[in-house]
User: Fold Putative competence-damage inducible protein from Megasphaera cerevisiae DSM 20462.
Amino acid sequence: MLVEIVTTGSELLLGEIVNENSRYLSQELNTLGYSVVYHTTVGDNPDRMEQVLRTALARADMVITTGGLGPTQGDMTKLIGAKVMGLPMEYHPEISAAIRQWVHEHHPERDMTANQERQAMIPAGAAFFSNEAGTAPGVAMQHGGKMLVHLPGPPREMRWMYEQRLKPYLLRTFGSQGYIKSVYVKIYDMGEAFIEEKLMDLVQHQSNPTLAMYARPGFVEVRITARAATEAAAAVLLLPLEKELRQRLHRTAVAYDQETMADVLGRELLKRGYTISAAESCTGGLVGSLITDVPGASAYFRGSAGTYCDEMKQHILGVATETLRTYSAVSPQTAGEMAQGSRRLYRADIAVSTTGLAGPDGGTAEQPVGLVYTGIDGPWGTIVRKDIYPGDRTEIKRRAAARALYYVVQYLLENTK
Amino acid sequence: MLVEIVTTGSELLLGEIVNENSRYLSQELNTLGYSVVYHTTVGDNPDRMEQVLRTALARADMVITTGGLGPTQGDMTKLIGAKVMGLPMEYHPEISAAIRQWVHEHHPERDMTANQERQAMIPAGAAFFSNEAGTAPGVAMQHGGKMLVHLPGPPREMRWMYEQRLKPYLLRTFGSQGYIKSVYVKIYDMGEAFIEEKLMDLVQHQSNPTLAMYARPGFVEVRITARAATEAAAAVLLLPLEKELRQRLHRTAVAYDQETMADVLGRELLKRGYTISAAESCTGGLVGSLITDVPGASAYFRGSAGTYCDEMKQHILGVATETLRTYSAVSPQTAGEMAQGSRRLYRADIAVSTTGLAGPDGGTAEQPVGLVYTGIDGPWGTIVRKDIYPGDRTEIKRRAAARALYYVVQYLLENTK
Assistant:
C-alpha cells in the first residue's frame, strides 16, 4: 500500500525546524510494511493545502497529515480534508466533553474557548482518535478506496497518537502488510574500524538481513534488518544473526535497540545491588539528569552534587585546597577527588565525576575547550579518563555526560561478573 | 517568487535520516526573500520523479532538487529534469576535464569511469556549477518562465554549492527578492488558546506583519514576521508591533528570539549581581544542566545538589526528618526546605528546588504522576509553586526544569526593578 505523508506548518517551510514528523512516521510505517513513497510539506494556505491533498489522494492509497488540528484560527486541515474527501462535518458531543474535561484538569481556572469547542467537529463517518497528550483529536476517514488520516502536529502528541491509536487502527483495518524487524546496537567509543572488524563479516553478501551504520551524536548506531511476511518469520531470519551479535559484544558496553547508556547502567547496577552518585562540574547536572531519565532510578541513584566553583568543590566534596591550587579544577587529580568526595557524601558504592572546559571561552593550548576528565571511584579504586570532545558547549556537555555513564558501565563489566 | 524544494533519496522515505537539506535551503531562501511554499520528497523511481517535477513546475516558479546527481546508475535527476523542461542533453568537455582532474587528485590510482564521464552531460543552455566537494556538477536551467535547479544530495556538498554557486547565481539572475524579519517570543505558562485571546487583536486583519504560534516542549512560541524590500523597511513595519508586544509582556517572564529561559535567568541575575543554586529531586540535575547551557554561567551559578532519596535530602540539604515524615518528600514543605537548604549550602542569593513524581509508577489520586513542587528561597522569602505536568517521564522532567527557571525569573521581576 502506497503512502504519502503530508506535513503542514510554515515553520517547516521557513526552515525553522527539521521535519521530524515525516521521519518518524516513515520509519514506523515502513516497519509495518507500508511503502512510503512521497513526503509533502505545505503551509497554512487553504488553496495550496487542498491541491496538495487532491494530488496526494490521486497518487497514494493512504495519505497521513500532521498539523493543523489545534484550536487556533490557522488550524484548518480537518475542514479541507473533509472537503477533499466529499464528507460533511459533524459535531460530536462526546469529543466536546473530553476537551472540556482536559481543560478543566489542566487549567482549572479557565473555561473551554470557542476555538477549543470547534475541535469537536469531525468529518461524517470518520473514526476519531482521542488525544491524551492535548485537546486535538485525530481522525481517519475512508472514501472511494482511499484513506485520509489527520494527526496533530506537535511531535510528542503525534507520536502518542500514532502509537496508541493509529497503529492499532491500521492493523485492525488493513491487517498485516508484511513485517520489517530490526535490531539496533549503539556503540559509544569505537569508530567504524572496530565495527568493520567485529561485525561486518556477519552480513557480507546478504540482502536479507541487511546491516547499516549511522553516526549519531556521541555514538555509532548499527542496524540489522530482516523483512518477511510475518513478525515471526522476520524474527526467525534475524535470530541467528542477533544471537551471534550479542555473543561477540558480550562484556562490551553497548546499548541494544531503544536502550540508552543510562538504561544499561541502571540494569548493570541493579543486577549487582550497587548504588551510584555523581559530582558534576562542566556537565552541570546532566549526568544526574540522564541517570534519572530511567524509570525506577531511585533504586540505585542517590544524587549528584553539582559544584560549579572551586569553593563548592572544597566545601561540599572535600577536594583538597592543595589539589586545586597545584593542578587546577580541570585535572585528573580534581576529577578523582570529586568522585571520592561524592561517593563519601552520598554513601554510594560507586561515584562518577566530570570536570572540564565546555567553552566557548577559557581554552588554552594545554587545556583546550572540550577537554573533560571523568573520574570514577568505587570498590576497585579510583580511575580517571581524559577526553577532548568536538562541538559547541551543549554538544560537549552531552558527549561528556553520555561517556561518563559508558565509563561506569565499563568499570562494572571489567571488575565484576 | 514561489519555490518548491524536491529532495530525493530512499533513506528519507525510510525514515532513516531527517530532511536537513529541505530545512537548510528553506531557511536560506527565505532570508533572500523567496517564498518556499512546498517541500516534496520522492524516491529513485523515474515515473514518480517525473510526475513530481511536472507538478512542482506547474505550481512553483522555481524548483530546486537535491540528490541524484552522482555517478551511480540510480542517479537520474538531471536526465528527468531535462526531459520535463524539454531540453536536450549536451556533452561539455570542460566538465569532463574537471571531473578527470578531481578523480586524478583524489584517486591517483584510478581513471575516470564511464559513469563519472556521464556527469559531463548537462541540459542544453543550462548554467552549471562546479563542485569542489565532489564530482557531480549542479545545474540551473530556465525555460518557459520556470527555473529548475539540481543540487547534489550529500548535505556538505549541497551547502557548499548553494553558498558558493547558487546563491550568487540567484542574486545575479533575479536581484533582491526583499527581506523577511521576525521577532520570536517564548511564553512559558499559557496555552495557545489563551495567548490567542491576549495577543491576536494585534495582528487581526493584517497580512504584513503576520503572527503565528507554535507549541514547543514546555512553552509556546509566538512569531511576528514582516516582509519588505529591505531589512530597514521590514524593521520599520515590525517596530510598532514589537514595541506593543514588549509593552504588553513587560514584567512577564518571556524569552525573545533565540533566547532560552536559562539565558533570561542569567541576564536578570547578572543585572542584579545575584548568585543562584539549585536542589533537585525529580529533575535529577536537569535544572543545573539548563542553567549551565549558558556560556559564562559560572559568574552566577554555584551548583545544584541532586538529592534523590530522603536520606540525602536530610543529610545534604538539612530537610527536617519531621517534614519528610509528616508531609512526605513530594510536598510544598519539603520543596521549601530544599530551596532553603541549597541556598545555605551553596551560600547563594537565591535557590530553586524541585520535588515531584516523574513516573511512570508511584502516582496516587492525591499525588498523581506529573505533580511537581518548585520551591524558591531568596531575600524576599520562600515561595512554592505546584504544577501537574502531562507527558512521559523525560517530558515531565523537561517541563519541570524549564518552569523552575521561569519561576525564578518571575520571582526576580516581581521583587526587584
In short: Chain A touches chain B through 96 residues (CB under 8 Å).
